[in-house]
Amino acid sequence: MQHIKIGLVSVSDRASTGVYEDKGLPSLREWLDEAVLNPKEYIERLIPDEQDLIEKTLLELVDEHQCSLVLTTGGTGPYPRDVTPDATLAVADRLMPGFGEQMRQVSLHFVPTAILSRQVGVIRKNSLILNLPGRPNAIRETLGGVRDEQGKTLVHGVFAAVPLCIDAIGGPFIETDAEVSKAFRPKNS
Asked: Looking at CB atoms within 10 Å, which of 13, 17, 103, 116 has the fewest?
């Protein structure tokens, strides 16, 4: 299996200054450790809600560290300090609107305020950048999807499309544990 570099960014004024413990980075790591079978290297950053700093961090993870996947958590709401999507769009080469649409679709199964989320997915060079919600449960739900009591998928999580997207932009072949997140690939790919 190919090695994959994954950038993880938690955006929070209070967690970055030690007011409370960051739960975003551990939640991302835990879910990815369960879902992705490839050997992984995480490059993590905990930063405040500052657009310039978010942009610089995303550029560092993609351009310098060559992360194939960058996941951010936090800063996606309508509040004035929520600027993660703005920073992400500022560094993007291409917008991938389906990711944001699907993240909101998943979240709508749990909270009606999901329509307030401004999450986006973009491509920069050979990297996919996704803005995830900030709460640990919402991170798991967004990545893994909605399942019924028997475990049948009702709404796919966004990670089902991540491996094919990364294949398409020249990244490593990602293998997943289908019990956590079954990667969709057309039969001819």
From this structure: 17
Q: Which amino acid is at 123?
A: I
Alpha helices in the chain (DSSP H): 13-16, 24-35, 51-59, 84-91, 97-108, 136-144, 162-168
Query: Alpha-carbon distance 69 to 61, whole Å?
Result: 9
Per-residue burial over 113-152, b = 16 or more CB atoms within 10 Å of its CB, e = otherwise: ebeebbbbbbbbeebbbbbbbbbbebbbbbbbbbeeeeee
- β-sheet bridge partners, residue 41: 5
- Neighbouring CB atoms inside 10 A of 73's CB total 27
The Cα 83–Cα 48 span in angstroms is: 10
- Do residues 7 and 125 touch, judged by C-beta distance below 8 A? no
Q: Look up the pTM and report it.
A: 0.96
